[in-house]
Amino acid sequence: MRLNSGRQSVIVFAKEMRDHLRDRRSLLLSLVYPLLGPLLLGGLLMAGGASLRVDREAPVLRVPAQGMATLRDFADLGTFLIEHRIELRPTMEDVEALVRRGAEQVALIIDPAAAGRMIDIVVVFDPGNISMAASAGRLAATLNDYARHRAHIELRAAGLDPALAEPVRVSGRPISAIRDVAMLLYGMIPALLMFMVFLGGTHLAIDTTAGERERGSLEPLLTAPVARSVLLIGKAAATLCFTGLTVAIHLIGFKLLLGGATWVVGGYQAPPSWSVFAALFAVALPVMIFAVAMQFLIATMTRSMKEAQIYLGLLPVIPAMPGLVLAFTSLSNVQSLAAWPLIGQLIGFAGLISGGTASPSTLITGALATIALAIAAFFLAIRSFERSTHLSPS
Amino acid sequence: MIETRGLTKRYGSVTAVDGLEFHAEDGAVTGLIGANGAGKTTTFRAICGVVEPDRGSACVDGHDAWHARLEVLPRLGVLPDVRGLYPRLTPREHLAYFGALHGVEPTVLSRRIAALAERLEMREFIDRRARGLSRGQELKVALARALIHAPQNVILDEPTNGLDVASTRAVRELIRELRAAGRCVVLASHVMVEVTQLCDRLFIIDRGHVVATGSPADLLQRFDATDLEDVFVSAIAAARTKSGFLQCA
User: Fold this and answer.
1) Are residues A273 and A365 in the same domain?
2) Are B97 and A11 inside 8 Å of each other by CB?
3) What range defines the domain where residue A135 resides?
4) Hey, is the C-beta of B37 within 8 angstroms of any chain A C-beta?
5) Nearest residue of A to residue B73 by CA position?
6) Pair A244, A325 in one domain
7) Half-sphere exposure of A317 (CA within 13 A, CB side)
8) Hey, which of A136, A179, B51, B82 would disulfide with B45, CB 3.0 to 4.6 Å?
9) pLDDT tens, residue by residue, A111-129
10) Closest CA to A186 of A265, A251, A263, A120
11) What is the per-residue pLDDT across A146-180, written as a single tens digit (0 to 9) for each?
12) Of the candidates B41, B83, B87, which has its C-beta nearest A394's C-beta?
């Protein structure tokens, strides 16, 4: 009695699930690796949280200053800075070198040529270091506040309106509160999620194709009365299942570990709600299908597990490319890119993380484009699997 | 019944099988013997529809193995030279998986698994994972997998390689039973004693084509030899020197 194709693919799927739930490498990749990203971001939030918080409760910032003698006419500057939890420390050392080698977070150079009622102050910092940049921003803002405060005092003393010195007053209005600095880290979730989607089923895809060939179990399997396309569908379904498990653990890890970190540190924006994480999973589903299709396309074309591992190691470059496109695209142009495979999902991820909403049309268009590409890739994988040359001559 | 007509298969510049003419009848054990690289494995793969012939054809019970693969495979049980087990599955799970893929009813499948476990002395390790099984135990599992759907035609590549004396006897007895039940058995073996004991007809192949064929008794007479080992060596030597084709009726 021959079974129908659907029943046969369920049998293959069940075998692969049973087999790989017993496999340490598959479980490691699916259950442990997805927690690394959440642990990293949670750790960053805990350890680096204090330096990221630009508020008045920030710790005392001790700043080496070169040329402090020039400040003799600005005796109230020290007091003003101390009120703002900044302490200047006179130094004769090369402060640029100190900052460059990381010995100091930020430093000041006060121009010794300046004298009298005007001085030039340079804030030295490394913009590549997020913690230093935050300290430098805090120091520069405080010094600018002092300059404004000093100008007001002197103008009033001269009987002039302080507004004369400041005809235009510029201030920033952040669309999020200071506590939202954690959003900076939450903004990394889409990239990590995309990477995990392409990593989750890798071992399964390799083991069920190139691995079967390498250990000689493919040949007996091909003597079963099952179409090769049906075999591949069963194997791909199991791989998709493991990928889904990986992504689910990844997202749950983010919610729990980031939630825990923000609760412990306190004062930060909590991570998005469970419903947002559920929506992220749904938006990631077409990418999971695409990732599995690409994994099978590559794995069926290779002759050994080692070769497959090399090529599949490069696969996460694919989602990085749309990320790069987005990085150099203005927001107004982003919607026009939504129909491109993977870009629609990246836009969806970013929208959900930042505001909890994403345009349904963007999501649907992106999903359809990605699924269409996945079908094309899987069709090519079946063609590759059906070729007789994937068994070595003997 | 299994037959090939002008079967040719090339891998790049290497001709693995070159116009092979072969047939194996029901109720008989037919031996396909040849040196390593003679083309046996490729011939078996073509019969299973695993590789597509470049020319000619392979048929099982009248069905073309490549074009009607899904008709052929239910009629065919194959023990390949590489046993190809899944290390994390038990022998019972192997048999259940392949039996299910062949569409064997669950109740029938359970009965067959029990019978094969008994017949091939697998009870001791049938629920142990395949990783760690001895070579002989692996062979028994692969043999049971080939027979789980009770096929009419059976291809056995080195069916006693790695078995102990008692198990070798049991397998040979099983092959005789298959013949007695009217099955078509094709056997490849380098053990000439086994070939002599079991085969009703032999095809000696070299460089992808048949160089001698006939019953063991016919071949011994034809080559004026006392055992099949001498027949094998003489047939290949004669073919290579004369590039001729010897046919014993």
Assistant:
1) yes
2) yes
3) 53-173
4) yes
5) A225
6) yes
7) 6
8) B51
9) 877 666 678 888 998 877 7
10) A251
11) 888 888 888 888 888 888 777 777 776 655 554 56
12) B41
